[in-house]
Amino acid sequence: MQTLWVGTRKGLFAVRQAQGGWRIGKPRFPGEPVSQLLVNPYDGACYAALRLGHFGVKLWKSMDGGNEWKEVAAPAFPAKPADGPWKDDPTPWTVDQVWALEASPDDRLWAGCLPAGLFTSRDGGASWQLVESLWNRPERKEWFGGGYDWAGIHSILVDPRAAAHVTVAISCGGVWQTRDGGASWTNTSAGMVADFMPPERREDPDIQDPHRIDQCAAHPDVLWCQHHGGIFRSADGGLKWSAIANPRPSGFGFAVAAHPTDPQRAWFVPAHSDGQRVASEGRMVVTQTKDGGGTFSMHAEGLPQQDAYHLVYRHALAASADGMTLAMGSTTGGLWASDDAGDTWQCLSRDLPPIAVLRLA
Amino acid sequence: MPTVEFAPALTRHVPCAPQAVEGATLRDALDNAFLAAPALKAYVLDEQGAVRKHVAIFVNARQIASRARLDVPLRQGDKVLVIQALTGG
C-alpha cells in the first residue's frame, strides 16, 4: 500500500492507502510550513524541510517511515566574502527555503534552495556543503527571481544511469547540468524562449524560467519542462529543447510529471495564463500527452468542473514508479488521486492547508 | 553576569531555560547561552550571524538597534530577552 506524503503550509500529512480508499492522518509539524519532502528510495529515509517563518529553514529526518523524527543540519551558506567578485552580491547568502530535495544512488543528497544555492550532503543530512562551482558561476549575476525575490533551484534530476550526471532547473536561471558530480556545470537551455523578456534576451539561456522539469526514469535523455512560456521537451538530455505547439487548454502551468517508462507520455495541470493563475473557466483538468506532445487529452472526471479556482504548484503533482497512481494538491488545499494513470480522479480533501509538495512512496 | 532568556515561541522548538551567562557583549552572552542549547542558535541567527528578520532581541526591555551589530556592551545583571516578532498568517 502506498503512502502519499503531503507537505503543506501548516504541516506534513501522511495519507495512507488502505482498503476502501485513502485516509488522511494527523499532521506532523502541525502549523509549520513544509516546503519540500524526500523519501530516499535507496535507504528509506524520509526528510521534511520546514520554512519556519521566524526561525529559518530546518530539516527533519525519519528512519522509520515517518513516526519518529529528529532535526538534522539544514543547508546553510558559508560566510559572505568581504572581497572578491561577490563582495557586493545583492543576493542574500541566507537560505530562505529548501525548494528541491533529491537522493542519488551514490549516497548523496542534493538540496536546491531559494536563493539559488545548490547543496550536497554525503552523510545523510548530518552536514551540507554549498556547490560553489555553480554558485560562483559569473552567469548567476543574470539570474533573477520568478515569483520570489531571488532566483531559486526547484528541480534536481539525478541520472539513474550515472549519479555524477545531475540536472538542475532554476527560476529564473535556466537548466544547468553537471557530468562530474558537481565539479563543473553547463547551461543546457537551448531552444527555450522567455517571451516576457526584451526581444534581444528571449533566448538567453541564463534567464529562462523553467517552472519545473522532470525526466523519464526509463529513458533519462527525455526531459519535460513546464516553462513560464509553455511546454518544452528534450529527447537528447537537454542539449536541445523543442517547444510543444498549442497545448490545450493552455501552455501555462507549474507542474509536470514525466511517465516513468514511456518517453512519449507526460502529465500537466494547466492554469489559465500567467495573468490568471487558476484553472481555465473554473474547470479543473489534468492533461496528458501520449505522443511526445503532439496531442493532448484532457481529463476532468472526478475533478471539480464548476467554480473551481485551484492552482497546482510545481511540486504538487506526483506519479508513482509504475505510472498508475497519480496525485495532485492545490494551493487552496484540494487533494486528488488517480489510480488509472490520470484518466479519472478522486477527491481526497478540499480542506487541507495550501499544498506545496507531494511525494508518493 | 547578564541573564539570557528565550521566549516560549523559541523554546517550544529547542528547550532552553533562562540562564545567567558570562559575556561582555551581547554576542558573547548569546554565544554562551547557546552552549546550553546549540540547536537554538540557527533559530535566532542566520548563517551570516545576523538576527533573523522575525526575531527581536531586547536588552533591559529596549530592542537592539541593529540585526547585524551584536557588539552591544553588557553589564552585570543586564537582562537579555529573545522573542518572536509578530508576523505571518
Helix-strand blueprint:
The complex is a heterodimer of chains A (361) and B (89).
Chain A: E1 3-8, E2 11-18, E3 21-24, E4 34-39, E5 46-52, E6 56-62, E7 70-72, E8 97-104, E9 108-114, E10 118-121, E11 129-130, H1 132-135, E12 152-158, E13 166-171, E14 174-178, E15 186-187, E16 210-216, E17 219-227, E18 230-234, E19 242-243, E20 253-258, E21 266-270, E22 286-289, E23 297-299, E24 317-319, E25 326-329, E26 335-338, E27 346-349, E28 355-360
Antiparallel strand pairs in A: 1-2, 1-28, 2-3, 4-5, 5-6, 6-7, 8-9, 9-10, 10-11, 12-13, 13-14, 14-15, 16-17, 17-18, 18-19, 20-21, 21-22, 22-23, 24-25, 25-26, 26-27
Chain B: E1 3-6, H1 8-11, E2 19-20, H2 26-34, H3 41-44, E3 55-59, E4 62-63, E5 79-84
Parallel strand pairs in B: 1-5
Antiparallel strand pairs in B: 1-2, 3-4, 3-5
Oligomer: heterodimer
| Relative strand content of chain B | 15-25%
Count of discrete domains of chain B: 1
Please tally the β strands of chain A and state the result: 28
> Average pLDDT of chain B, to the nearest integer?
93
Span from first to last CA of chain B?
A: 38 Å
Low-confidence runs of chain B (pLDDT<50, min 5 residues)?
none
Structure characterization notes:
In chain A, 1% of the residues lie in helices and 40% in strands. By secondary structure, chain A is mainly beta. In chain A, 48% of the residues are buried. Chain B is α+β, with helices and mostly antiparallel strands. Chain B has one domain: Roll (Ubiquitin-like (UB roll)). Helix content of chain B is 19%, strand content 21%. Chain B has three helices and five strands; from the N terminus they run βαβααβββ. In chain B, a hairpin with a 2-residue loop joins β3 and β4. The longest helix of chain B has 9 residues, at 26-34. The chains are: A mainly beta (361), B alpha+beta (89). At the A-B interface, loops of A face α3 of B.
